[in-house]
Request: fold
Amino acid sequence: MSDWPDEQLDHIGASDELDITTRRGDGSLRPWVPIWVVRVGDDLYVRSYGGIDGAWFRHATASGTARIRAGGLERDVILAEPAEASVHEQIDSGYQGKYGRYGGSPVTQMTSLAATATTVRLNPA
Reply:
């Protein structure tokens, strides 16, 4: 069972993009970054298009937390890595199904080994 309220899970999972940010040491928010989100079952996953060098990814994984917003919903999240390789296959399929309309290159990048290595599950804080 998911920790996400059903309405939020549905809302975020159906969003084309979500915006993500992290807090600086003084508590202020860094600039928002639009990213793709994929829902697998009752979980939400994101990856860094820029791989481990993506700024939002570096900051979020360093703190283990981030703030997201999608279509008026805004909340803090905790980042967790998926445990099983089979989840990566489902996430890849999710990216291909949801974003395939953009053509090959962006989806190919998001399902590459570099992006897959940055896969994190978003849990509500």
Q: What stands out?
A: The domain at 6-124 is CATH 2.30.110.10 (Pnp Oxidase; Chain A). The chain has a mean pLDDT of 93.
